[in-house]
Amino acid sequence: MSTVFHAQRLFDGERFVNESYFKVVNGKLDFINDIAPDADITELSGLVVPGFIDVQVNGGGGAFFNAEQSVACLAKIAQAHGQYGSTANMPTLITDDIEVMRRAADAVALAIAEQTPGILGVHFEGPHLSFPKKGTHSEQFIRPISEDEFAIYGRDDLGLKMVTLAPENVSVNDIKRLVSLGVKVSLGHTNADYATTMAALDAGADGFTHLFNAMSAFTSREPGVVGAALWHDTSWCGLIVDGHHLHPDSAKLAIRTKQRGKIMLVTDAMPPVGTDATEFDFFDGRKVYRTGDRLNSSTGELAGSVLDMASAVRNTVNTLDVALPESLRMASLYPAQYLGLERSKGRLLQGYDADFVVLDDALYAQATYISGQVIA
Predict the structure, then answer these.
(1) pTM, whole model, 2 decimals?
(2) Which of 26, 68, 82, 301 is 20 to 30 Å from 37 at the Cα level?
(3) Helix (H, G, I), strand (E, B) or coil at 30
(4) Measured torsion, CA atoms of residues 291, 87, 336, 196, in degrees rounded to the nearest 10
(5) Peptide bond into 335 cis (omega under 30)
(6) Do 49 and 327 contact (CB within 8 A), yes or no?
(7) Could you tell me which of 272, 336, 333, 132 has the C-alpha nearest to residue 216?
(8) How many CB atoms are located within 10 Å of the residue 18 CB?
(9) Which residues are catalytic?
(10) Cα–Cα distance between 291 and 283 in angstroms, integer?
(11) 41-53 confidence digits (pLDDT tens)
(12) 329-343 pLDDT, tens per residue?
């Protein structure tokens, strides 16, 4: 006998529904009307919402993908973020040596083959970036794209694939080639001008990595990468709503300006998420230090975040004054649409993946389910 879930209140991605009953069949939602008298019912007290999808997560639970390329590391990251409602993640490897990239690809391929819960694929943030906008990325590993990287990006066993690059350093033809290999090309850590950015979008790039951060600014006579991101209707932008990466009114302006459905919440999370750790080892002998909920490299730059997706939703509601339904869509439906998963994730509808989160009244995650199985 399969368990019947009873959601007192459920947000299906578009509307709120009271008193929903559903079963999980082969990891999919099966909403029902007739409840057998002897049904085993699991009560979901709180607001049940679609699982959060994070397209940029570097670490969590003390694990750092750049430090350890293994299925165990990926599972630890997914478990850490599962505590905060993330049911699907794009593990992110920041700029590193080609051998580290190969090992990361091998780990992701094995995780995909083993159906490790919460792992969708891989996001390579770099190494084809701009020196002036490198942020905390290690300068020694920034390099042009080559056949060595294309051999990784072209693999068909990695699940979903993303690459963040600077379009001034990667040709239009190479961007087209990446797209032809099934890679989602996102623009970031770039000092490109508006024309170069628009050319990259015309070539098939369709995302912007952490909008406003590490990219050329909007000015009166040169719209820059930020201007292109806000002007271009069909591309998506990630926002790190942690109170440190951008001013609240900058985020509000982006949400007001950008076409609805094209702003995603991301964490850019680092190893301390889900732990009490106050520092961890980084590149080039550097360390990253945690002060409250802020991370800085020992050389001063912001170094990712200790943000989780539930906190990102709360901040979007409470700091940016975005209505709860839209804030939830920014954490689930819109990332699903960006990744091409809108027919299986991002909503709680008949036949969709049974990936859901139970939130309390203050929007803290109380339980997280992947394929109908509780993970946190």
Answers:
(1) 0.98
(2) 26
(3) strand
(4) 30
(5) no
(6) no
(7) 132
(8) 8
(9) 268
(10) 19
(11) 999 999 999 999 9
(12) 999 999 999 999 999
